[in-house]
């Protein structure tokens, strides 16, 4: 049962609630101006947002442009219960606290769809927004009409269409402090009586907002270039086809992270040397032994970092979509064919410090083909229906190399061991095997077939029953090979194996007990790293039904209740280190939702609300082991529930307001995960019971309040002013739910002020004007909390601080 404890309301929540009451309790203050209708395709038909029985938020292309919303990270500020988190190994998208972990084998639980083609891989969440008509955020499982793995929700992006009249626009945005520049242009119009085309181009450069003291560089610097062409052919009066070809290139250097929490060493085999020293202090001491400059980390947050490797991340993505729409005796036939591919190439200084501990190169090569065919009945009969079939084939090739080479922390430990004599024999052994390259190759393929349908029975003029279902069958295969070699001998040996295992968490005191036979034989410890060559196959099928009841209680109010099921297929772990942990299971969900959508005061205001309860089984999770690896598993049961509120009001012809408010309760019912490192050091327990705890990225309250004002002046000019306050409650940002690492509640303020005419506009765009210090992800620094140091340190990925940009737009006709 859902309960809401209002005692936890912050000032921002109370303010938002009061503002909503004020908006909707003073109809006399509203003018005759009505709200513009918002048209969405959340149910694969064009219809009013107010007629869709789903909790959905829509952001128009105009709002994206005016507010300077450049990507999913910017969008999350305007859509409660939606977040994007960046990590060193990839982005994560989340709705209602549900998303996929950091692992190349994972397909996203919140799937991005662009023009009806699924972009379900994590690197594609970094794609920039360019020339979009709108974005729809659909909350809850979308496993009937949207299909593949959309168990947490769907992000539906619709690109702008070619026009029948000539249109052109150029835009530029410049932000001085961090030297961010964005330039874009669109050109659209008819080529002849039956052909029209649209061209969109976008370029971004960013100087970065971190200072790297070792490399004397600003990070993360970024270069992006995107181009899209879209051709529409009106083949007959009843048949239209469109072809879209787009490509995006992204080249980034560095990551927006820094070490900001340092705990003193808490014992271990080197306590007599480093007791009460923090990990950076230990690093400075070891750096002195090798002549390595490791920089200084004082444990404070100041937008300064000390990493010693030139990190980079490159993405090259191509997307081709062919869409055919035909009217067949008033029925609508739609066929969507998608070709998608991308390549990534990355180098990560994954220890996040100036210590040369662990750098990882990784590459992905992904290819996808999909075909969807839908047939929809005319609207307005006794039964409205839509059905179709879906096919998708994909291939992923992923490889990575973990490099420990030259002067590094292990070399320093070996040097230290030499100086300690007999006491340092084990450290000396580590130093001798310090030059290593651990290679990982992962290849997977998937082939999926699905049939889906949805029918709405109009029981009366104001009551409708909708039943939908999807049947899915999927086959997967995968292979993973791991090989560790000494870069000096190019051979795998026991000494090198010991070094790698030290990095992966085997206690130092066990190293001397490992003989050559035990190191390579089947009796080595369960956690011991091994070279291996695995391959497996699996096939799955799923049936995911949904039921929705709608009631128009008046001409302006629709109430609904729904039950929906969802499914996400299992797979094979791309990043694991142990042979026994290759496969993970599928996850399932059932969601109960009730809502109301209402138009008020002669269509001058809207108020929508939804309450939901969601039960997840075998939730797929990924956790960093605190040393140098990730592992994937399933949380047996988790429940998320809450309330979502959206409102719009048109006060006068020029003044409007929007409000969104969300309450979210998340609880693991059954799950054992990794203990926080300080707790492990104190108790020796690696597994902790998460039952009763919230997950990461699950703030209890979030919301936004926006005001927009346009004043028409003489001679065709107008002034526009907009302000948006975005509140997020405190939340966990680190996977082991270590309490001291919670992100505090914050309120970001964004604003726009501009002068507009029929031909041009100029805006000042302010982002994070309250200059909030917000981290999107926290992770333990590699090797810091494990043997032999036991000095846990953490690094955080911080959002951009306050910035103000100038934006110029010019239209041609």
From TrEMBL:
Residues 49-154 form the TonB-dependent receptor plug domain. GO terms for biological process: iron ion transport. It comes from the Bacteria. One of its GO terms (cellular component) is cell outer membrane. Residues 288-769 form the TonB-dependent receptor-like beta-barrel domain. The keyword Membrane applies. It is a multi-pass membrane protein. Pfam families: Plug (PF07715), TonB_dep_Rec_b-barrel (PF00593). Keywords: Cell outer membrane, Ion transport, Iron, Iron transport, Membrane, Receptor, TonB box, Transmembrane, Transmembrane beta strand, Transport. InterPro entries: Beta-barrel_TonB (IPR000531), Beta-barrel_TonB_sf (IPR036942), Plug_dom (IPR012910), TonB-dep_rcpt-like (IPR039426). It is found in: Cell outer membrane. Gene3D superfamilies: TonB-dependent receptor, beta-barrel domain. Belongs to the TonB-dependent receptor family. This is TonB-dependent receptor. It comes from Parahalioglobus pacificus.
């Amino acid at each position: 049962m859902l309960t809401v404890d209002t005692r936890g309301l912050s000032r921002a929540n109370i303010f938002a609630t009061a503002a909503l009451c004020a908006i909707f309790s003073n109809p006399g203050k509203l003018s005759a101006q009505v709200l513009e209708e918002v048209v969405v395709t959340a149910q694969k038909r064009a219809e009013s947002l107010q007629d869709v029985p789903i909790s959905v938020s829509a952001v128009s292309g105009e709002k994206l442009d005016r507010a300077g919303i450049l990507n999913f990270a910017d969008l999350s500020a305007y859509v409660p219960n939606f977040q994007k988190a960046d990590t060193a190994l990839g982005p994560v998208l989340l709705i209602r606290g549900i998303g996929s972990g950091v692992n190349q084998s994972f397909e996203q639980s919140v799937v991005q769809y662009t023009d009806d083609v699924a972009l379900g891989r994590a690197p594609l969440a970094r794609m920039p927004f360019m020339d979009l008509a709108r974005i729809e955020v659909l909350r809850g499982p979308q496993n009937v009409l949207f299909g593949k793995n959309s168990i947490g929700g769907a992000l539906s992006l619709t690109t702008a269409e070619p026009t029948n009249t000539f249109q052109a626009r150029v835009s530029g945005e410049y932000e001085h402090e961090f030297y961010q520049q964005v330039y874009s242009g669109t050109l659209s119009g008819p080529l002849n009586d039956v052909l029209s085309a649209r061209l969109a181009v976008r370029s971004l450069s960013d100087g970065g907002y971190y200072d790297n003291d070792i490399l004397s560089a600003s990070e993360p610097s970024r270069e992006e270039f995107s181009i899209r062409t879209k051709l529409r052919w009106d083949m007959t009066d009843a048949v239209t086809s469109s072809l879209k070809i787009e490509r995006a290139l992204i080249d980034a250097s560095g990551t927006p992270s820094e070490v900001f929490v340092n705990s003193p060493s808490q014992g271990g085999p080197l306590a007599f040397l480093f007791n009460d020293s923090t990990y950076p202090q230990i690093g400075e001491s070891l750096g002195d032994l090798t002549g390595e400059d490791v920089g200084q980390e004082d444990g404070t947050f100041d937008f300064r970092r000390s990493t010693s490797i030139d990190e980079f991340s490159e993405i090259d993505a191509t997307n081709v979509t062919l869409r055919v729409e035909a009217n067949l005796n008033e029925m609508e036939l739609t066929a969507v064919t998608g070709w998608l591919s991308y390549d990534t190439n990355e180098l990560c200084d994954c220890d996040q410090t100036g210590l040369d501990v662990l750098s990882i190169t990784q590459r992905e090569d992904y290819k996808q083909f999909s075909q969807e065919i839908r047939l929809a009945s005319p609207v307005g009969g006794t039964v409205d229906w839509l059905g179709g079939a879906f096919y998708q084939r994909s291939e992923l090739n992923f490889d990575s190399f973990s490099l420990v080479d030259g002067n590094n922390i292990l070399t320093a430990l070996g040097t230290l061991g030499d100086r300690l004599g007999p006491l340092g024999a084990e450290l000396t052994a580590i130093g001798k095997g310090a030059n290593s390259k651990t290679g990982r190759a992962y290849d997977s393929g998937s082939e999926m077939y699905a049939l889906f349908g949805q029918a709405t029975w109009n029981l009366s003029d104001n009551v409708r029953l909708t039943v939908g279902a999807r049947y899915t069958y999927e086959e997967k295969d995968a292979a993973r090979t791991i090989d560790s070699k000494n870069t000096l001998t190019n051979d795998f040996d026991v000494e090198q194996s010991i070094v790698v295992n030290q990095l992966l968490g085997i206690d130092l005191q066990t190293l001397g007990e490992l003989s050559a036979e035990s190191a390579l034989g089947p009796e080595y410890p369960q956690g011991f790293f091994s070279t291996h060559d695995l391959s497996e196959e699996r096939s799955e099928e799923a049936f995911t039904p949904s039921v929705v009841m709608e009631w128009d209680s008046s001409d302006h109010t629709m109430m609904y209740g729904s039950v929906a099921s969802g499914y996400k297929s299992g797979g094979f772990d791309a990043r694991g280190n142990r042979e026994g942990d290759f496969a993970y299971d599928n996850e399932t969900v059932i969601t109960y939702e009730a809502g109301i959508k209402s138009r008020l005061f002669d269509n001058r205001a809207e108020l929508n609300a939804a309450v939901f309860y969601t039960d997840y089984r075998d939730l797929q999770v990924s956790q960093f082991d605190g040393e140098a690896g990730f592992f994937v598993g399933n949380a047996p049961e988790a429940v998320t529930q809450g309330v979502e509120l959206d409102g719009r009001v048109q006060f006068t012809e020029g003044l409007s307001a929007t409000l969104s408010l969300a309450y979210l309760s998340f609880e693991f019912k059954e799950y054992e995960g990794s203990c926080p490192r300080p707790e492990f050091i104190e108790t020796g327990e690696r597994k902790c019971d998460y039952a009763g705890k919230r997950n990461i990225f699950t703030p209890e309250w979030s919301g936004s309040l926006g005001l927009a004002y346009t004043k028409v002046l003489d001679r065709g000019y107008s002034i526009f002013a907009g302000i948006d306050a975005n509140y997020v409650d405190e939340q966990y940002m680190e996977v082991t739910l270590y309490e001291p690492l919670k992100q505090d509640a914050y309120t970001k303020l964004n604003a726009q002020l501009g002068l507009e005419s029929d031909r041009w506009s100029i805006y000042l765009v302010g982002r994070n004007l309250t200059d909030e210090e917000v981290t999107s992800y926290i992770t333990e620094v590699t090797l810091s909390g494990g043997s032999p140091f036991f000095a846990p340190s953490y690094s955080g990925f911080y959002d951009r601080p306050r910035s103000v940009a100038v934006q110029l737009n010019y239209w041609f006709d």
